[in-house]
Amino acid sequence: MKKELSPFSEKLIFYIRAIPRGKVATYGQIARLAGKPHASRTVSWILHSCSKAYKLPWHRVLNSRGKISFPPQTAGFARQKNRLALEGVETTFLGEVDLSVHGWKKKRAV
DNA sequence: GTTTTGACAGTAT
DNA sequence: AATACTGCCAAAA
What we know:
The protein is mostly helical. It has five helices and two strands; from the N terminus they run H-E-H-H-E-H-H. Helix 2 packs across helix 3 (40-50).
């Protein structure tokens, strides 16, 4: 592998990579799976830091509302929207994804 | 060692 | 209901 990050970071990366194709997960969900329900900030940092180095499917990571985190009219927004569309994830022009349809239901034990 | 950042989430007003 | 602030964790400068 490239470099060894902290166990938390590796976990976050692991779960991000574990997102099935055609599904999307939220920052909070990944952070929760990693054991830190409030590490959503760390998730965003991971994407920035390791999206390329670790080949992370960052396009499958949305915010808590199931929307693309980027502001519209940005390259990242268009790129993510395009990738999601290629995976069968329908997004609105606002980048909204229906979590009830494409939401990654790994274990939502309330 | 301290300060700043990072594509957020949750709570408070 | 909508907006603002705070909290959280980890890494880079």
